[in-house]
Structures are given as C-alpha cells and as structure tokens.
UniProtKB/TrEMBL annotation:
<feature type="binding site">
    <location>
        <position position="60"/>
    </location>
    <ligand>
        <name>(R)-pantoate</name>
    </ligand>
</feature>
<comment type="subunit">
    <text>Homodimer.</text>
</comment>
<feature type="binding site">
    <location>
        <begin position="147"/>
        <end position="150"/>
    </location>
    <ligand>
        <name>ATP</name>
    </ligand>
</feature>
<keyword id="KW-0067">ATP-binding</keyword>
<protein>
    <recommendedName>
        <fullName>Pantothenate synthetase</fullName>
        <ecNumber>6.3.2.1</ecNumber>
    </recommendedName>
</protein>
<feature type="binding site">
    <location>
        <position position="60"/>
    </location>
    <ligand>
        <name>beta-alanine</name>
    </ligand>
</feature>
<dbReference type="InterPro" id="IPR014729">
    <property type="entry name" value="Rossmann-like_a/b/a_fold"/>
</dbReference>
<comment type="pathway">
    <text>Cofactor biosynthesis; (R)-pantothenate biosynthesis; (R)-pantothenate from (R)-pantoate and beta-alanine: step 1/1.</text>
</comment>
<comment type="similarity">
    <text>Belongs to the pantothenate synthetase family.</text>
</comment>
<keyword id="KW-0436">Ligase</keyword>
<dbReference type="GO" id="GO:0005524">
    <property type="term" value="F:ATP binding"/>
</dbReference>
<feature type="active site" description="Proton donor">
    <location>
        <position position="36"/>
    </location>
</feature>
<feature type="binding site">
    <location>
        <position position="153"/>
    </location>
    <ligand>
        <name>(R)-pantoate</name>
    </ligand>
</feature>
<dbReference type="GO" id="GO:0004592">
    <property type="term" value="F:pantoate-beta-alanine ligase activity"/>
</dbReference>
<keyword id="KW-0566">Pantothenate biosynthesis</keyword>
<keyword id="KW-0547">Nucleotide-binding</keyword>
<dbReference type="Pfam" id="PF02569">
    <property type="entry name" value="Pantoate_ligase"/>
</dbReference>
Length: 288
C-alpha cells in the first residue's frame, strides 16, 4: 500500500518510523513512466523507506514553456508507485513548498548552469536547484535518486550537495529507453506518431557519435551531426544543441580531449522539446 500525503506534517510520522533506517527520496513532477520505475527500483533496493515526491515546480518553467499543459496524472502515478513498492507519495501544494510566495532566496547554479540547457532555458537550473534543495529539506533522506537522462541536472545537484555540505548521497540511475532507442520522458506523451519517429533521431545521433569515441572528439561530433542534419534538412526537427562536454563542468571538450565525456542533444519535434545524452569515453586517437 502506498500512502498519499500532501503536507510535511502528514509526512513526518513516516520519517519518524524510519529514523534509524535508510530513507530514500525520488523527486518527480509526476506523469510517471518506466524511467521513474527504475529510480524507484534502485531506491527500494538501497533504502528502508522510499518517498516519491510529485510536484510540478513552477519555478523551473520559463514564461513560454509548458507549465500549464505539463501532464498531471496523479491517479495513474499512484498506481505505478504502488506497483513499484513506494511507501509514501508526498504531493505538496504550491503554498506548502513556497510559503513566502515567489522566493527571494534561491540556489543559483553558477557557470555550469549557464551552458546547454541553461543557455536555452534561462533560470531553469535556479528553479531546479531551489526545489531540489527544498524537497531535500522537506523529506530529509539519506539518499536521493536522479536519472542520468538529465545529466546536467544530476551534475549540478551533485555539485550543490558538495558545495553546500548537504548530508545526502546522490545516486545517478541509467536512462531507460524504448526498444528502438527513444529515451523515456514524460514529454514523449505529447508526440504524435510522426513526431515520435522524428524524435528517434536524437538517440540515433548519440549512438552514431558514440561509435566514433576511439576516433576523437571531432569524429564523434561529426557523426552525430550527420544524423541530425538528415532530419533538420526536412524541417521536421529543430536542434537546439549537440554538444560533447566534460561532465565535470559541462564545457565543450577540445579536439584532443581524452577521458569521460557526455554527448548531449536537445531538439524540438513539433512543439515538444526533448533532451537526451550518452556518456562515452574518448580514448587517445588510435588506441583501443
Ligand atoms: O527531473 C525532474 O523531474 C525535475 O527537474 C525535479 C528534479 C523533480 C525537480 O522538479
């Protein structure tokens, strides 16, 4: 049985019940899918108490973004949480999370939050880090689980926890994909079947790039761009960025770079904006 609570006061007895156990939190905006299931599964494996939060955070949506139309599917979400063995769903009201109205004090991400997603969605990561910080305070977990699909978000959350000495362990969980490669996302449900076919270009571009990891950064970018260009040429896909970055700061890697990198892409199919990424290891040119 999964309990549903809406206030911090209602959540407290669950937290008290596991004061000496491991408490885990999975933060979500609802519209749950198999990617979230993987997060719940990992949390269930690692923790005695699993709390899922469902909160569509207004602070991380820009004025022209999809806050109003973001899917809100609480009944289905609760069923999925029950199947996944989540103990408690905490779905607070905006007034509980932002008791002072629009917050004056926020968590700002610094330069790592100004590239890629941060460049295309000004203020996005301030909204994300502020809510993650708040939800960590409200749920007081030992571990918090985040998807690697939002690689820049995950890196910034890790950095916030380090920089602000926050007593929580951050766990990254691998991206879940449909059989044909499309990364699971709450926003996939906006896609028509034609747009979904177009959206597949994102993962195809990333896998094409990954295959060139032994040939250097430029070869990776070229291979990925070649796949994207076929779909952008017809106007079906609008690419915001394709970037090969250093996961330590999300800056573009130079051509001779070797080591861990992230190949990241963001693009719009119709009016739906999607992101995806793959981690890869760039080996010295010619090395195996
Ligand atoms: O990844 C998400 O769904 C959101 O950015 C998060 C972490 C729940 C914060 O609102």
């Amino acid at each position: 049985m999964t309990a549903l609570v809406h206030t911090r006061a209602e959540l407290q007895p669950f937290l008290d019940g596991f004061a000496n156990g491991k408490r885990g939190v999975v933060m979500t905006m609802g519209a749950l899918h198999e990617g979230h299931l993987e997060l719940f599964k990992q949390a269930r494996h690692d923790c005695d108490l699993v709390v899922a939060t469902i909160f569509v955070n207004p602070l991380q949506f820009g004025p022209n973004e999809d806050f109003d139309r973001y899917p809100r599917t609480l009944d289905d979400d609760l069923k999925l949480c029950a199947e996944a063995g989540v103990d408690v769903v905490y779905a607070p009201a905006v007034e509980e999370v932002y008791p002072g109205g629009q917050p004056i004090v926020k968590v700002t991400p610094g330069p790592m939050g100004e590239t890629l997603e941060g460049a295309f969605r000004p203020g996005f990561f301030t909204g994300v880090l502020t809510i993650v910080n708040k939800l960590l305070n409200l749920t007081d977990p030992d571990k918090a689980f985040f998807g690697q699909k939002d690689a820049q978000q995950l890196a910034l959350v890790r950095r916030m926890v380090l920089d602000l000495n926050m007593p929580v362990e951050i766990i990254g969980v691998p991206t879940v994909r449909d059989e044909d490669g499309l990364a699971k996302s709450s926003r996939n449900r906006y896609l028509s079947s034609e747009e979904r076919a177009t959206a597949l270009t994102l993962s195809r571009a990333l896998f094409a790039g990954q295959e060139k990891a032994t040939e250097g950064a430029d070869a990776v970018r070229d291979a990925a761009n070649a796949v994207l260009e076929r779909t952008t040429a017809t106007g079906e896909l609008t690419v915001d960025y394709l970037a090969l970055v250093d996961p330590r700061d999300f800056s573009e890697v130079p051509p001779a770079f070797t080591g861990q990198a992230v190949l990241a892409v963001a693009a719009r199919a119709g009016t739906t904006r999607l992101i995806d990424n793959l981690p890869l290891t760039l080996t010295p040119h010619g090395a195996r």
